[in-house]
Automatic annotation (TrEMBL):
GO molecular function list: thiosulfate-cyanide sulfurtransferase activity
Protein name: Sulfurtransferase
Highest taxon of source: Archaea
InterPro entries cross-referenced by the UniProt entry: Rhodanese-like_dom (IPR001763), Rhodanese-like_dom_sf (IPR036873), Thiosulfate_sulfurtransferase (IPR051126), Thiosulphate_STrfase_CS (IPR001307)
Annotated ranges, domain Rhodanese: 16-123, 159-280
A Pfam family matched in the record: Rhodanese
Keywords, alphabetical: Repeat, Transferase
SMART domains reported in the protein's UniProt record: RHOD
SUPFAM superfamilies named in the record: Rhodanese/Cell cycle control phosphatase
Length: 285
């Protein structure tokens, strides 16, 4: 499928491989990692990837500290997986890539696939020697879109022409019927709706809901190209806080090999709280 994806069988065969570090990334470790996890997997709660003060990612120096504490070195093959169909694992993958860790993979299917296949689990937390991790680069340019960029493209009529916006939230969020999915009831925005011109392709269309794994590449291509999302355009994905958008970014960039895909991680939590920002409701772009 892609070198960026590893199957559960490969992970099971490499549970004790000293060159591989398995990492579970959870929204809520209390209901996931702490109940059971892949043997020898270390935990990163998604909020540990966030800046302690402002709405942003943790600084490179803090990323180095986090990696070192988890026993992750620059030379490790890092395999990420997690809850919520790998939403936050894909979000972490995005950050690892931006901070220059090239040898990072996503375990296809995450916790869902591992559990349904009856693979070994544990509650034991592994301990690994501390490392001296160093961030090799900071490169957001080809991965991240900022508010001012998206707003400029909307105002100047580029969306739908040179630039395609993909709203990967649920249809009720896109239409403006709700402002957040039920699991995020405490993280509301001021208004509901979508960015004008954005095409609705919910993230879940890329996943087999029975297995938790990505759908075959040809089926994925039909889904996105059938909705007008083609590789000859610049594509920007967004959701509400960026995690579902990172999942679709991964599909487009690493499974379908689209050359120009970025995540607007400010997403609806930013846009829907911005005074004067253009908003559209209903089911049409």
């Amino acid at each position: 499928m892609s070198e960026a994806v590893v199957e559960t069988e490969w992970v099971q065969q490499n549970l004790n491989n000293p060159k591989v570090r398995i990492v579970e990334v959870d929204y809520d470790p209390a209901t996931a990692y702490e109940q059971w996890h892949v043997p020898n997997a270390v935990l990163i709660a998604w909020k540990e990837l966030r800046h302690p003060v402002r709405r942003d990612f943790l600084e490179p120096s803090d990323f180095e500290r986090l990696m070192s504490e988890r026993g992750i070195s620059n030379d490790h093959t890092v395999v990420l997986y997690g809850d919520y169909n790998n939403w936050f694992a894909a979000y972490a993958f995005w950050l690892f890539q931006a901070y220059g860790h090239e040898d990072v993979r996503l375990m296809n299917g995450g916790r869902t696939a591992w559990a349904k296949e009856g693979r070994p689990t544990t509650k034991d937390r592994p301990t690994f020697p501390k490392t001296q991790y160093k961030v090799r680069r900071v490169d957001w340019g080809s991965r991240r879109a900022y508010l001012w960029e998206v707003l400029n493209k909307v105002v100047h009529g580029e969306v739908g022409k040179n630039v395609l916006l993909v709203d990967v939230r649920s249809p009720p969020e896109y239409k403006g019927e709700i402002t957040a999915p039920p699991e995020y009831a405490n993280e509301q925005t001021q208004v509901g709706g979508h960015i004008p011109g954005a095409i609705s392709i919910p993230w879940a269309q890329a996943v087999d809901q029975q297995t938790g794994k990505f759908k075959p590449v040809e089926e994925l291509r039909r889904i996105y190209e059938g909705a007008g999302i083609t590789p000859d355009k610049e594509v920007i994905t967004y959701c509400r806080i960026g995690e579902r958008a990172a999942h679709t970014w991964f599909v487009l960039k690493y499974l379908l090999k689209y050359p120009a895909v970025r995540v607007y991680d400010g997403s609806w939590a930013e846009w829907g709280n911005l005074v004067g920002a253009p908003v559209k409701k209903g089911d049409q772009p």
